[in-house]
């Protein structure tokens, strides 16, 4: 579960640690960046609002849930939407309006404020036919699963052509099943 905290002045180190330990993965929005305290990574926003990126990370995790995959790989996967939004005003509008609609459908705390995955998935099912959802889902297929650092988590050894093909490299080895 990703919890988002929008930092404000006066947050002590003790309060930050207390919030982080109680909430699971903690994403902090600071200026134009989304920061993770638990995994020590950050994602700078260049076109989209950092709150939008944080919501996209949670949305990505809910669309393709893999408990063993750290949030940083989801952040890398959604970064392409920030880059595209910087080049294409229509894409930026699609994403920002899509997140606003998602937050509106989710109630007072917005999408990231929903505590249960089942609640968030129910909201996603309401919008799964929209161009916004399809853009995010489609981008994740490539953005998440084409990261070579993620492959070992799934037991995928990568392409085999350059190594003689799969037949010579354990084609009949079914340990991965």
Give a description of the structure:
The protein is an alpha+beta fold and 177 residues long. It has one domain (2-146). It contains seven helices and four strands; from the N terminus they run βαβββαααααα. The chain has helices spanning 13-23, 50-63, 71-87, 89-106, 117-127, 131-145, 151-154, and strands spanning 2-6, 25-30, 33-36, 41-44. Strands 1-2-3-4 form a four-stranded mixed sheet. Helix 3 (71-87) crosses helix 4. The longest helix has 18 residues, at 89-106. The two termini are 27 Å apart. The model is unreliable at 5-11 and 15-24 (pLDDT under 50).
Give the secondary structure arrangement, pairings included:
Elements: E1 2-6, H1 13-23, E2 25-30, E3 33-36, E4 41-44, H2 50-63, H3 71-87, H4 89-106, H5 117-127, H6 131-145, H7 151-154
Parallel strand pairs: 1-2
Antiparallel strand pairs: 2-3, 3-4
Helix pairs in contact: 2-3, 3-4, 3-6
In helices, the fraction of residues equals 40-55%
Number of domains: 1
Biggest sheet details: 4 strands, mixed
Number of strands: 4
As residue ranges, the low-confidence spans are 5-11, 15-24
Per DSSP, what share of the residues sits in E-state strands of 2 or more residues? Answer: 5-15%
> So how many helices?
7
End-to-end separation = 27 Å
Q: Which H/E pattern describes the elements?
A: EHEEEHHHHHH
Q: What class would the helix/strand composition place it in?
A: alpha+beta
Shape: globular
Summarize it.
The protein is 51% helix and 11% strand.
Tag the structure with descriptive keywords.
transmembrane, membrane, 11% strand, TAT_signal, alpha+beta, 4-stranded mixed beta sheet, globular, 177 residues
């Amino acid at each position: 579960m990703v919890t988002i905290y929008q930092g404000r002045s006066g947050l002590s180190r003790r309060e930050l640690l207390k919030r982080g330990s109680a909430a699971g993965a903690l994403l902090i929005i600071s200026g134009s960046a989304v920061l993770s305290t638990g995994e020590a990574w950050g994602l700078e926003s260049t076109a989209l609002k950092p709150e939008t990126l944080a919501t996209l990370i949670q949305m990505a995790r809910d669309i393709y849930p893999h408990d063993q995959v750290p949030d940083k790989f989801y952040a890398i996967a959604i970064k392409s939407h920030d880059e595209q939004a910087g080049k294409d005003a229509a894409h930026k509008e699609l994403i920002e309006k899509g997140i606003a609609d998602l937050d509106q459908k989710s109630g007072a705390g917005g999408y990231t404020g929903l505590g249960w995955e089942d609640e968030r998935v129910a909201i996603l099912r309401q919008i799964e036919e929209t161009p916004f959802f399809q853009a995010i889902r489609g981008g994740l297929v490539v953005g998440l699963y084409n990261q070579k650092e993620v492959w070992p988590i799934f037991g995928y050894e990568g392409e085999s052509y350059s190594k003689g093909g799969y037949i010579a490299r354990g084609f009949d080895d079914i340990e991965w099943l």
